[in-house]
Every structure is written in structure tokens, then in C-alpha cells.
Amino acid sequence: MNVPEHETNRHGEKAGHRLAGRVDRQVERMQRAERERPTLLAQTVYLGSLGLMFVLPVVAGAYLGHWLDERLSGYSMRWTLSLISVGIAVGAFNVYWLIRSHE
After folding, report:
1. Pair 82, 64 in one domain
2. Do 44 and 85 share a domain, yes or no?
3. Is the pLDDT of residue 92 over 80?
4. pLDDT digits (tens, 9 = 90+) for 16-42
């Protein structure tokens, strides 16, 4: 769809100038993204942090649940399984929160 360059928008700008401005902004964004691209080390650290944010609550829940099951008679693995489930939920929330705050 070709828009004649002599047509103007409601602000009095010519259609060709609007397109050129949008293209310039997009080129600038792409160049900035290329300059600010994270290194391999930065990506590795980020993924490692995500892993730890998920695994640590699960492991802590497993240890705490096992400790409680040993202390209380009649609870074979109830606390262990319950706290592992809680650890999975907390770990998933941690990963979600870290990804959202990094954007």
C-alpha cells in the first residue's frame, strides 16, 4: 500500500517522514541490542542463578521434612513429601520472580 508522500497526518507530518523516523528508531534499537548483548559468561551466571533459585528450596524442604519425620513417630515420609512439594512451589515462584525482574 503506497501512501503518497504529499499526504500529511493530523499533526501535519508527511507520511514519508513518519516512516523514516520509525525506521531510524528501529535501527537504533537493533544496534543498541547488539552492543548490549550479554556475554557467554553472563548468560551462564544467569542460568546458574535460576537453577539455584529453584533447587535450594526443594533441597531445604527435603532436609527439613526428613528431620521432622525422624523426630515425630508415625509420620513415615509425610513431612518430607509435603515440604518437597512446598519447595517446588517456592522454587518455581523464585524463578518466575527472577525472570520477571530481569526483563
Report:
1. yes
2. yes
3. yes
4. 678 888 888 999 988 887 877 778 888
Q: What's the mean pLDDT in 80-97?
A: 96
**Spatial separation of the C-alpha atoms in residues 91 and 56, rounded to whole Å:** 7
Q: Which residue range(s) make up the domain with 9?
A: 1-37
Do residues 33 and 48 share a domain? Answer: no
Distance CA 18, CA 26 (A): 12
From residue 32, how far is each of 43, 57, 84 by CA, in Å?
18, 37, 43
Residues 89 and 45 in one domain: yes
- In terms of Cα–Cα distance, which of 51, 58, 46 is closest to 90? 58
Q: Which three cell numbers stand for residue 7?
A: 499526504
